[in-house]
Amino acid sequence: MKLISDFRILLLGLWLGAACFFSFAVAPSAFSVLPSRELAGSLVNKTLAIVNYGGVVIGLILLAGSYISRENVSRVRLWTERGALLLIAGACAFGQFIIAPRLSGLRGQIGRPIDEVALDDPLRVAFNNLHGYSVTVLIAAMIAAIIAFFLLVRRARNTTN
């Protein structure tokens, strides 16, 4: 069971690291070094899709794993862990399958680079709002991942002592 526990911690750590790297390195760097914001947005969109799909898959794998290895853990901690893992998977799915297509649709309706659209244009306002929701959803998934990570590590420590 130690191997399963270690593997679960590794998976969650990998996803959380990827999400942090995307948020604090890839996205800001893309907008600062690429020649156009459209190119940067395309790169960020593709990279975010990888983070989101990874969050859905890893969240569901870890959730399933919580039913396999559940010894020596209180019910409250177990359900908190499961809730956090479900939040990761759900937030990533929501970001990828609800918000991303709507952002793409708005980009298509606008038909030109977003920076060329007036700030008070209804399509630009809707785009900015959706972008804000996308950021919020990813932050929620990352916070849930931090909580789940510490719960998994604590459980692993308790089973080895």
What do you see in this structure?
The chain is mostly helical and 161 residues long. It has one domain (2-160). Helix content is 86%, strand content 0%. The chain has 4 helices and no strands. The chain has helices at residues 2-33, 37-68, 75-110, 122-160. The protein is elongated, with a radius of gyration of 18 Å. The protein starts with a helix and ends with a helix. The mean pLDDT is 93.
List keywords for this structure.
elongated, mainly alpha, single chain, 161 residues
Rg, alpha carbons: 18 Å
| Tally of domains | 1
**Helix/strand/pairing category:** mainly alpha
Average pLDDT, all residues: 93
Gap from first CA to last CA? 14 Å
Unreliable runs = none
Number of helices: 4
What secondary-structure arrangement, pairings included, does this model have?
Layout: H1 2-33, H2 37-68, H3 75-110, H4 122-160
